[in-house]
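Good morning N.,

You mentioned wanting to compare the apo and holo forms, so I went ahead and generated the holo version with magnesium ion. This is what I fed in:
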Amino acid sequence: MGKNSAEHAEHADDRDPVITMRDVTKTYQMGAMQVHALRGVSLEIAAGEYVAIVGASGSGKSTLMNIIGLLDWPTSGAYAINGVEVARLSKNRLADLRNREIGFVFQRFHLLPRTTARRQVELPLFYAGVPDRTARRRALDALAQVGLGERVDHRPDELSGGQQQRVAIARALVTQPSILLADEPTGALDSQTGKEVMALFHELNEQGITLIVVTHDLGIASQAQRIITLRDGEIISDAPAARQTSPFLSASTNGQGARPAIPAQEVLA
Amino acid sequence: MKVFRYLAVSVDSIFAHKLRAALTMLGIIIGIAAVLVTVGIGSGAAASITERIESSGTNLLTISAGASRGLSSTSSLTLADADLLADATLFPDIVAVAPQYSSSATVIFGSSEGSYTVVGTTANYATVRNLTVAGGAFLSDAQVAESESVAVIGDTVASDLFGADDPVGQTVRVDDTLFTVIGVLEASGGSGFGSSDSQIYVPLGSAQGRLFNAGRSNGSYAVSSISVQGAGSAVLDALQVQIEQILRLRHRLAAADENDFMIQNQADMLQIASDVSGTLTALLGSIGAVSLIVGGIGIMNIMLVSVTERTSEIGLRRALGAHDGDILLQFLVEALVLCALGGVVGIGLSFAIAQGLALLPAMSYRIVIEPWAVALALAVSTASGFIFGLYPAMRATKLDPIEALRFE
Ligand SMILES: Nc1ncnc2c1ncn2[C@@H]1O[C@H](COP(=O)(O)OP(=O)(O)OP(=O)(O)O)[C@@H](O)[C@H]1O
Ligand SMILES: [Mg+2]
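and this is what came out, ligand included:
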């Protein structure tokens, strides 16, 4: 494992690291019992990389993503984003970093109910203090970029699952963050819609955004440049996707995800 | 200002939960309406009493014979007393003096008759008592000097005896004496005993001599009361003391004797009336205020529920970069908007209730909802939004983004 990381570090040398983690642990206290969700994770992710994080359920993928996304804090260890050590930052400064540097895409979309797509996408700009007119224009641009230029006044219950996830992606993109985090972004979508969403991600990555995706889907993981595999809160493999050294991947039989695909509610138009 | 941008957010969220918002506002609506209507009833009562006191003249002192009000031949107050008060060199602060001799009499016109208070007085009584003539004229100085058989009748007397006909120029019989009606007074609005509407005015001498055969004291005709108009409300108290002293001297009262007359000071009456109605208003208002507090607690309750219910929304907003202050403001502004909206609806409701109550025949006066009460109601409802919205809003800021996002 250590060897894999070293190899990768070499590969990323020419680019600035956006994410640096050293011996990060996360321990949850469940009454008298301690749950070690992460046990000493070290990694470096360079600008513009496309990384997939895989691993069995409960292996700590979401915990790691939440720490990367500044939604959660390590129990111990060091974490720096764009060279800034986050442990020293105030709550509001962290909020600013989430606002400007990070875009989130969640498995269950997390859109506001009864709110139009345009309003959803304007939200991060509202918190960034962008004037209304500019925010409106940028929100419409972002929605057009994800192919929803015609659906800006629709509410979540008037959109298909794929369209809802596109709204969420537009919302993640609208502040032009340097990192896009997606925790099982296709988990609630049928495979065709999932492919379309991943194609969109791919395109965004090619335009330069650093992309980190947690997934159970081998097809998706193999599109990444690099696959990090977790088991019981530790990185057991970190290698370019082409080498297919992830034990998690080889454990699966075919190209399908480790979990049964969630049936599609609606098909993307 | 960022606060104004939250208005849109909170209005959105209020409209997203219309029923809940309406139920939340109900407490404030009822509270505000209760306060305004109860205070309005108090103000209305005060205004009606004040109006009635003031309609009987301005800066008025009324001296009445104490022992036996006018009817007795041993009445203590005399025309000489009135003449003395009218002496401008002695009492420069007295503008006018109108003595009265009144008693009740049967008044007949044609086949109609009724029993009314007949007031014998002088020409300046109309100005001293703020009477307005609707038709014809009030008693003139000449008519009073000659004790002519002329009468001015109140509005109720006119309609009782003459119906829709014009009484001016007609002759009425007052206890066997004939009087020519020379004027009709405008309705004063006051009701009951002592209102000018149900009185009939004749020259002082006519009442004392021809009608009632008034007694004499020290060679001067008795009067039942004397109305004194002061130069201003500020001099009334001093005048009252002066008049009291002079009358005690004239009536030869020893230091231990009680006054054989009574002086009513209009300023005192107004003061008492406003004290009483102020207490009444405060009492009624505080009952209403209790319902406002109950309404405010309702707001807090619903806001707390709303914070819990929207945990994941709060988490999402935090993930997208909301500061503590943003979350605080969002919920605070929402509570403020709810309360202010409730206040506005409550104000509207209170006016509707006031209108409705005014239609009741039992309601003898208007409910007066004054601008200051409306402004206060708005301020109080907004303040209660702030007070009762602050705690839930602070609770919302305490939520960790990750806890909030996981909540489903
Ligand atoms: N708030 C929490 N309190 C206690 N334990 C937690 C908490 N969050 C996560 N855990 C535990 O930490 C471990 C890692 O959880 P995590 O959600 O990161 O797994 P995951 O890899 O994302 O799994 P999945 O694929 O099912 O989403 C699990 O054992 C989980 O039970
Ligand atoms: Mg997970």
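Confidence is low (pLDDT under 50) at residues 68-73 of chain B.

Happy to go through it together on a call whenever suits you.

Best,
F.
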